[in-house]
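Records of this kind hold a single protein each, on a pair of labelled lines. Below, a sample record shows both lines together.
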Amino acid sequence: MNDFPKEEFTNRISKIQENLDRENIEAIIITSPSNFRYFSGLDSNFWESPTRPWFLVISKKNPIKAIIPSIGITALEKTLIKDIEVWQSPNPNDEGVTLLKKTIKNFPINSKIGFELAFESHLRMSIQDFINIQKELSDYKFVDVSKIIWGLRKIKSENEIENISQICSIASNVFDTFPEKIYTNITEKKATSIFKKELINNGADYIMYMACASGEGGYDQIITNPTEKKLNNGDILIIDTGSTLNGYFCDFDRNFGFGKINDISLDAYTKLWESIESTLEIIKPGISCAEIYSSLSKNLIAKDGNDGSVGRMGHGLGLQLTEPPSIMRNDHTVIEKNMIITLEPSIELDKNKILVQEENLLITENGYKLLSTRTPEKLPIII
């Protein structure tokens, strides 16, 4: 179990039960790693093994229940969950399905049973098993509960805020001193290797995500792993890290120039910085994601009308690298106190050449608090 007090999880369970009662949903079945962790407190990376499904059953009246493979019982017994059923797994012919159906049958006929079926959610069980459960238990109504879950998860508790703040501070400190540790002709792989070691040495638990890209005056994408490409005069390097502490992510990037950088790229870097700076002035509870997007993008529109974005300019942040909502033109989610979001504007310099900047921030009662140290106003140059 992670370092959070038991009350953190009992509060979460109580809140979801209130929602289930209000929506007349008898129970929800949790299968995805982040939601399983959110409600149980199970601290494990065993989810990297996709062989065995895990089920967490939260009803509107009964105590929380787990149906899990036997390998996990000792770990789960250390959480607040006391009602645990197990099966021997791997068992391709019956991966907990019989036990799950038995549990569902304990609920009244025709009642609604929720699963994570949409809205940035997924089932971590055999789709065929889910289809078969629907067919065999046709007297029940299977519904999506992803919006209910995200309605809870988008507002962070004090414990969550503390962990996200700490990992953002750790990554910020590493980014701030990083120019002292890299040099011309260093490879992308070597640069990110140094960065990863510094993150761990400064207290990060894991580096779950690290994208790296570089190129003359910019780069063509921001999602792939580093290569053996050497960084030479005129290149701009971006590193984007999703590091974790106690399961909670930071997610922001920084750019570094090598030698002499062309004026067009320097001007674009400044435009991105100013885009975030002016948007920070309007950030507060009550503003919508669409309004934030409009502010970020208004000075970045190219002559052809292209805003240079990849569909959005930021998102929620927490137990996952990206969470709802999305900072985009058609997301009208209203920002609330204790949400944590990223601002991530991008600008297109040319075909297949972009620049991106990103910050992490907490929404406060009257505004915001930066969790990442502010991107340098001027592009850091490595000589």
